[in-house]
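Entry for nicotinamide-adenine-dinucleotide complex. Fields follow.
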Amino acid sequence: MGAVPDITLNDGNTIPQLGFGVYQIQPEDTAQAVGEALGIGYRHIDTAQMYGNEREVGEAIRASGLDRGEIFVTSKLNNSFHEPEDARKAFDTTLSDLGFDYVDLFLIHWPLPTVYDGDYVSTWKTLEEFKGDGRARSIGVSNFQVEHLERLAAETGTVPAVNQIEVHPYLTNEAVRAYGREHGIATEAWSPIAQGGVLEDPTIAEISGKTGKTPAQVVLRWHIERDDIVFPKSVTPSRIRENFELFDFELDPADVEAIAALDRGEDGRTGPHPDTFAYVPG
Ligand code: NAD
């Protein structure tokens, strides 16, 4: 089994290219799932304020006996807290819930361009404060479209280290990925297997048959070879292990292309559209 590669971010910090996502894992199941993942070898956990399980992520990391510095932890700002004073309080709560004095990466979860008078710029400047005081080692965004990234570039002094967006074979999201490549913003691909929705695709089944790897491994390996960062989610120990075993094989370049050709554009999107998503928890 090869080791998980690190990706170097535009601020010089490194992030393991493969991690473990905890969206939709119930708080009562989170510590066990994260403990399982850490036991298998995952060293990168992706959580968020809106997932409601930061406390349990912190507990599992402490229970693992691993040093805090060995594990890369990401969290994200709740959509309710874009105004600077709210964001500051929410970030304090993230640190106290996790039980850590820093996070490795903190993201604006959604741009919400139709809420807060479309002002995600002051929110970004607030994240710059967290980086400045060292409590967020890196800062980035999630679900930002090209126009949102262009606005940050025009109006602020820090380029996001990452943009975490929906990417999988049915939504390759190429324009946003390309902007990131050109501007030093690493792409993190969320729902990398479309929550299981791409695993029965005949092209993926064929590559799975040819390589002897499972459909999930084929799709996750495809992301790895495209240099994106992924953190598949599962609560099933055998799948958590399967999703980690991606570094003892390679895909033919033609197969990487064949998977990318499954792109359905907007029809392939499974989550909300970032331009219109306006969910703000009460
Ligand atoms: P995913 O693509 O990782 O799919 C997870 C689901 O696929 C599981 O619930 C399970 O049903 C199935 N699955 C997992 N491994 C499998 C395997 N080996 N074989 C068969 N089926 C398998 O979906 P996700 O959880 O939505 O995305 C991963 C992570 O991305 C999340 O946990 C979260 O950390 C992040 N995310 C971020 C955003 C955002 O807005 N920033 C949105 C969604 C997800």
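NOTE: Residues 21-23, 46, 109, 142-143, 164, 190-196, 199, 216, 231-234, 239, 242-243, 271 surround nicotinamide-adenine-dinucleotide (CB under 6 Å).
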